[in-house]
Write a structure and sequence with these properties.
The chain is mainly alpha-helical. It is built from 4 helices and no strands.
């Protein structure tokens, strides 16, 4: 997942308003258990477009995983 994360970082540096980039990077962070980064990317995606469901799903999955791990 780390090579994908680097590519998403590069893409988002060039296009900071790319909703899909934040969503995909958030999923990648979630797979790596980087929960703070997951939340931050989901929040950025929701700021760009709060009518799409993916950002909410990621935040919900992160919350569920965090509870399970406690």
């Amino acid at each position: 997942y780390l090579p994908a994360l680097e590519k998403f970082d590069h893409v988002l540096e060039k296009n900071p308003d790319y909703y899909e980039g934040f969503i995909k990077r958030a999923y990648t962070h979630l797979k790596l258990n980087h929960f703070d980064e997951t939340f931050a990317d989901a929040e950025k995606a929701l700021l760009l477009d709060n009518k799409r469901h993916e950002g909410y799903l990621i935040k919900g999955n992160q919350f569920r995983i965090t509870i399970i791990m406690c």
